[in-house]
Write a structure and sequence with these properties.
308 residues; mainly alpha; Ammonium transporter fold
Length: 308
Amino acid sequence: MTPALAFFYGGLVHRKNILNQLFLSFICMGIVTSQWCLFGFSFAFGPGNSAFGSFKFGALRFPGDQSHLYGERDDPNNSPTFPLLTYVAYQAAFAVITPALISGAIVGRMKIVSYLIFISVWTTVCYDPLARWVFSYQGWLHKYGTLDFAGGTVIHISSGVAGLVSSLILGKRHDYDPNKHDTAHNLPFTLLGTCLLWIGWSGFNGGSASAANGLAALALINTNVAAASALVTWVVIDAILGTITISGACSAAVVGLVVITPAAGFVQPGWALLLGVIGSIIIYFVLKIKKRFLHFDDTLDTFSCHGV
């Protein structure tokens, strides 16, 4: 999903920023995976309190249990039917793509070294605690009964808000013009990225059932239905108001995938379809309002499409 995001974002930016934008997603696969192995997973899912983990699972070593050498250690809460290292790898994918999402808000105005430091710190002090609070059975939000099936809070709200704050701190691009429509330089890139994201999201949401069962099937169907209804709704609104755009249609599919993520295992398909419609309508007009009245430079609408 992270390379897919790179293509999705990469096709929407100006030609001069394409390689930079691809790299901002790609480097997350290196930095965050390394951090996750060294201490990220331990902070999020290791022994500790309801707010934060510890270093006890650092470097993915589980004290007192040698079965981890073969990837066979299990966890009755997080990985009841498969090796714990499988769960580590699955959660690593969530951890990697979340800071990559933020890059869409800061296109063309953040130095690479600054970005590398930022995502390293942000993953440690923002993502890891949020993952613990919501995903870990030890987390305080989890204990209070918070329902977030596959990361609406942990991934999308966190990256959306971080994107907004980052864009406000960095300020506008020197050539930013709210009245000018940025021309996407390579829409086939964006369309390819959207399709791969849609496919990958099936594992993203379906895998959150932590089993190959009816719950996973429900999440899988809901994911596809919400994306489809959001896409169709956006295209219909576009057709009514003017011109159907490929970039808008691609954004719509992602909006549908985002809106169903926290609810994928908790609603029936008919409601998933309705959620896609509602999400698409809201974000369509949020973007209209942003363009007309809210002139902050969230380049690829990370906050609008993920945070809102």
